[in-house]
Amino acid sequence: MHRQLRPHGPDDGAASATGANRADLRSALAGDKNAFARLIARRERNLYGLALVILGCPEDAGDALQNGVVLAYRKLGALRHFGSFDSWLRRIVAREALAIARRRAAGPLTVASRADMAGAHQPTAGAELSESAATRLDLAAALASLDDGHRTAVVLRFVADMPVREIARLTGVPGGTVKSRIHYGLKRLRQLMAPTRGQQKDGGNGEAYPG
């Protein structure tokens, strides 16, 4: 699996730029499972949160995270840039979550609680904890209020950082439908979050959708 990674590109995440992550990535590429485990441990909560928002079920989200981590380790040799590791990993977990969602499409949905969804992204320390946690709780509730199609489109675009083309392919709907779902989803989120943000009014402006 050992290979040389090229310098990071413009999509770098802050975590990917740290020396510890660089060192662990190099070690993981050389076959060090402990180094890979450390990389995952630093991101586990946010990856679980991503799967939970897509699936709405804690148990399914845990399965998606586990499946995604296993697949990421197997495919680690395909990574091209240090800085793309975070977005690459989010996409893998998001795809696994969507696969689970498709398999259980005919079954009942167990929706996660607001606390479950917010807790998956809760900060670990700092004076801003209370305000940040409250905001995340409100956002989690707002996302949970969207239907599956709109919530999935918004999360895949802005959390998993997927282009519209890939979202369309994964969800099996036309690109125009994806754009429409993102637009409506964002508009609805702004409306639901307005009280939290001081009763800000929705400007009704269109969104830009790279893809």
Question: Mean of the pLDDT scores?
Answer: 76
CATH level-4 homologous superfamily of the largest domain: RNA polymerase sigma factor, region 2, helix turn helix motif
Number of helices: 9
Q: Which oligomerization state do the chains in this entry correspond to?
A: single chain
Separation, N- and C-terminal Cα atoms: 31 Å
Which segments are poorly predicted (pLDDT under 50) over 5 or more consecutive residues? 1-17, 106-111, 121-131, 199-206
Which fold name is given in CATH as the topology of the largest domain?
Rna Polymerase Sigma Factor, Chain: A
Rg, please? 18 Å
CATH architectural grouping of the largest domain:
Orthogonal Bundle
How many domains?
A: 2
* SS-derived structural category: mainly alpha
CATH structural class of the largest domain = Mainly Alpha
Helix-strand pattern: HHHHHHHHH
> Can you give the helix content as a percent range?
55-70%
Note the main sheet.
none
